[in-house]
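Structure tokens please, single chain.
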Amino acid sequence: MSNTITIPNAAQVTEMVMDQWLNSFNMIVKSQEQAENATRMWLDQARTAREQCQKVITQIAEQAKENQRLLQEMVTSTVRLSLETYRIATNHGISDVSQRVEELNKQVDTLTRKAQSKVAAAH
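Here you go.
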């Protein structure tokens, strides 16, 4: 066993330095690629989230429009029904009052005739 130390010559040292420099440069390139991939993934996720958010907002807006349309239909239907009910009640009321007026007119005529015949009999 020999304890001799070999000293590299200038060409070997230059080659070792160049190899080390190349390894360092390759590590930097790999790190940059990993950073680019991470950034690309983050941007893709952000785009997907933004697209999903836009879809949800569109659905909510469409649902709000539909709800407004249904509410308007319900209000219109309720008002129409109320007016029809009022009109029917009013028509019935007018008909009932007219009938009652006719009955009262007949009674007045009858009473008037009776009164006239009593006056005529008294003379």
